[in-house]
Specification:
Elements lengths: L9 H13 L1 H9 L10 E6 L4 E6 L2 E2 L1 H5 L4 H4 L3 E6 L8 E4 H17 L7 E5 L4 H13 L2 E4 L6 H11 L3 E5 L2 E3 L2 E3 L1 H8 L8 E5 L13 E3 H10 L10 E2 L3 E7 L7 E6 H15 L7 E4 L6 H13 L3 E5 L10 H9 L3 E4 L1 H8 L16 E4 L6 H11 L6 E3 L34 E4 L11 E7 L9 E2 L3 H9 L6 E9 L5 E6 L3 E4 L2 E4 H9 L4 E11 L3 E10 L6 H15 L8 E5 L12 H8 L16 H8 L3
Parallel strand pairs: 4-17, 6-7, 6-8, 8-11, 11-12, 16-17, 16-18, 18-19, 19-20, 29-30
Antiparallel strand pairs: 1-2, 3-13, 4-5, 9-10, 14-15, 15-23, 21-22, 22-24, 24-25, 26-27, 28-29
Helix pairs in contact: 1-2, 5-6, 5-9, 7-8, 10-11, 13-14
């Protein structure tokens, strides 16, 4: 399969970028023409950032799964679509061809219909990294149901919050999941979440770990039993539902700067066009390449660059159930050697973690198949970039340092492998079709190079979020109200003398921990649920492995027992409310927090102390109780 929109060289990048700015509708219309449409659009783009109201490929009709599956059957039917590597290296892997995948998606789409799922219904998916997760996602899209995948590490409370917000009446889960040396009891977590969610009609349970589970009559059914019912009915085909270009494809919840997670909504057509376009161009995908994205499908990276982008491009995508350090720190390198992987896309956190094991685990593995390396989730530091370049890429593989967000749907700023130059710790240049700007606090655009400011985008791209589910005003306030006529990313950035962008981190109260966004307010809410906690404040601090760690200042009432035990109790509370991913790395007990006389917590001071800066804290004389600052400095962990 060839890609008419693939950029082949630096001159091609320059001309494509110029066209995308001077004639965005012509540019994206050309890209979109490479896909299969039931009905072509009447207009490429209709937009304003004020409301916001953004429509791409207006009145176009399509189904994304016809582009990911049906259109490949004639030419790629026997080619591997998904290679699945299980958690245990001794267990047999699975290879699913495009024809196999088409059949399995059609089958499970019929299972969903048999269980009452209709176009527009919300389906919560809470599964481990097995092929059935990708099949479930595609089956929802096939019948026009809106999927909402929840990462398998979130707690029952977090799932319940998401079920309520989306009013999701259907759930797809597993009995359990394997992750490293852990067995995660997914079904029992779902059961806990459903204690207060009486509106859920069906729970479909796939078998993975053979963990004993409770199955409620009338509500819970086994995946395998439901598949058999479809098989006995004969023809397993399931015609794809015709979708409008702007119909919602999925909801994905992301942490915000307030405690309540927000459901980012992506549309069918724009998301399809952009994820495929960015996948082919950033990684310079060539037919036959094996693409290994190490993310979980519970995050946007897995949606865009394990499932939809690669499959729409007719690629072979590798899914991995386990973790990079189990049964030893050579697991990634085993997989690359075993399947002759061409593209590796992973997180700086994983790279820094593997660096800590030295070069022993890398040695003895043939990594010569690698052509492109990529990083995602957070800015990569120079030391990790050079280690990745030297020891994994052997200084012959370009590293694409991709910047994007759940809300953007796909990569917006990145070098293109071998086409535009990379630069350590820099995301470098925007993709054609993306118009970034840096602005100061007042929203004045900073012209020229060698400047730093807040990163905004001044024109929509096809996979921009459309709304936050059930609360459009929250979408407007969060992303479009800070600066007029711009999408505000929440990130700071600098543009160097060559025009390359370097992301400097969040400028709002959202932390980036191991590439995952966690709202400080969300963690504070969880800490404050502990019976003894009076008040808390959470900030980020530099962490050698995670990039950012979570530092919590906690005002505690009457402490019973020792501090160490109380810390463990608080960590357990956060795990129960959100999940282990949000556990603070450090908890410092304090008698009070630095506040202004109006009651605002001075997080700037707390951030500096957490970062080890205790001298230049600025003027503290205006605080309600300046003495608190000395106590916090002296008690730093």
């Amino acid at each position: 399969m060839s890609y008419s929109f693939q950029i082949k060289d630096a001159a091609g990048y320059q001309s494509a970028y110029k066209k995308s700015v001077s004639d965005p509708e012509g540019f994206w219309g050309d890209v979109a023409s490479s896909f299969y449409w039931r009905k072509k659009w009447d207009k490429v783009l209709d937009w304003n950032f004020k409301e916001p109201n953004i429509k791409w490929f207006v009145n176009g009709k399509l189904n994304i799964t016809e582009n990911c599956l049906d259109r490949h059957l004639g030419t790629l039917g026997n080619r591997p679509a998904i290679i699945w590597e299980p958690n245990d290296p001794e267990e047999h892997h699975r290879v699913i061809t495009y024809r196999d995948l088409y059949n399995k998606v059609s089958q499970f789409a019929n299972v969903l219909k048999n269980n009452g799922v209709k176009k527009g219904d919300r389906v919560c998916i809470y599964m481990g990294m097995i092929p059935e997760l990708a099949i479930a996602v595609l089956a929802c899209a096939r019948i026009g149901a809106i999927h909402s995948v929840v990462f398998g590490g979130f707690s029952a409370q977090s799932i319940a919050d998401r079920l309520y917000d989306a009013n999701a009446e259907y759930i797809i889960t597993c009995d359990g999941a394997f992750r490293g040396n852990k067995d995660i009891p997914l079904k029992s977590v779902i059961d806990d979440a459903l204690v207060g969610c009486r509106f859920v009609k069906k729970v479909i349970v796939a078998t993975r770990t053979r963990t004993p589970v409770s199955m409620l009559k009338g509500r819970d059914v086994w995946w395998e039993d439901e598949i058999k019912k479809v098989e006995t009915m004969g023809n397993p085909d399931c015609p794809a539902e015709e979708m409008d270009a702007e119909d919602p494809l999925f909801i994905l919840y992301t942490s915000g700067s307030t405690g309540k997670p927000k459901g980012v909504v992506h549309s069918c057509a724009g998301y399809m066009v952009y994820t495929t376009y960015s996948f082919v161009n950033v990684f310079q995908y060539q037919p036959g390449d094996i693409h290994f994205c190490t993310a979980d499908i519970g995050w946007i990276t897995g949606h865009s660059y394990i499932v939809y982008g690669p499959l729409a491009a007719g690629a072979t995508t590798l899914m991995f159930e386990g973790v990079p350090t189990w049964p030893d720190a050579g697991r990634f390198w085993d997989i690359i050697d075993k399947y002759k992987v061409n593209i590796l896309y992973t997180a700086p956190t994983a790279i820094r973690s593997l660096m800590g094991f030295g070069l022993g685990p890398v040695q003895g593995h043939d990594l010569s198949s690698l052509k492109v390396l990529g990083t995602v989730g957070e800015p990569i530091n120079e030391e990790a970039w050079h280690w990745y370049d030297e020891h994994i890429g052997k200084k012959r593989c370009p590293i694409v340092d991709t910047w994007w967000q759940t809300e953007t749907g796909g990569v917006l700023i990145s070098n293109m492998a071998g086409i535009t130059p990379g630069k350590p710790a820099h995301a470098t240049l925007p993709l054609p079709g993306v118009q970034p700007v840096l602005v100061d606090e007042k929203g004045v655009e900073l012209e020229g190079n060698g400047v730093s400011g807040n990163l905004c985008i001044k024109h929509p791209w096809p996979s921009i979020l459309r709304t936050t589910y059930g609360d459009h005003e929250r979408c407007r306030v969060n992303y479009f109200a800070t600066y007029e006529n711009m999408y505000f990313t929440g990130d700071g950035a600098l543009r160097d003398e060559e025009g390359n962008y370097r992301i400097t981190g969040r400028v709002d109260d959202v932390l980036n921990v191991s590439g995952h966004r966690i709202g400080t307010a969300e963690v504070e809410n969880a800490i404050n649920m502990h019976a003894g906690v009076v008040e808390s404040a959470v900030v980020g601090y530099p962490h050698d492995i995670k990039g950012q760690g979570i530092y919590a200042y906690v005002v505690f009432g009457q402490m019973h027992g020792d501090e160490a035990l109380t810390r463990q109790d608080i960590l357990q509370t956060v795990t129960r409310v959100i999940g282990p991913i949000a556990k603070p790395d450090k908890i410092q007990f304090v008698s009070g927090l630095p506040k202004t006389r109006s009651g605002k917590i001075m997080r700037r001071i707390l951030r500096k102390v957490a970062e080890g800066e205790t001298e230049n804290l600025g003027d503290t004389s205006t605080l309600l109780d300046p003495g608190v600052v000395e106590e916090i400095k002296n008690g730093k962990i």
